[in-house]
């Protein structure tokens, strides 16, 4: 009986232990997720980790196989199959540099960083004026990430961010 109580207590604690660093959300980036869809063999993934206090978002973006030269990558607020406003830049290029401090995009590989309120590009049309608004959109599944190239300026690969993992 004591063993059963101990197992039950451990099972109850697992979500808290798993969430000690905040919410983890993921996205799988593919060309057919773009609006309109893009025919490409490129793919990628994004993992964001929202700080427990909601004041920062750590991210890791990985991508490969892009047909065009990478120009920029960012997070937008919009539901699936709808294009939305850019709210956070992940990386840019000489052609599309992004706000001051935006890191350079590789042609393939990994981009990591941490975003705060200072990195936010407010969107009044989408009512996103604080990082808390972005966090809410991420948690509600109404945000996406995409990687733009010279051949697909609207985005070559895209993934809806959502689902706690």
UniProtKB/TrEMBL annotation:
It comes from Usitatibacter rugosus. It comes from the Bacteria. This is CHRD domain-containing protein. The keyword Endoplasmic reticulum does not apply. InterPro entries: CHRD (IPR010895). Residues 21-165 form the CHRD domain. The keyword tRNA-binding does not apply. PROSITE patterns: CHRD. Keywords: Signal. Residues 1-18 form the signal peptide.
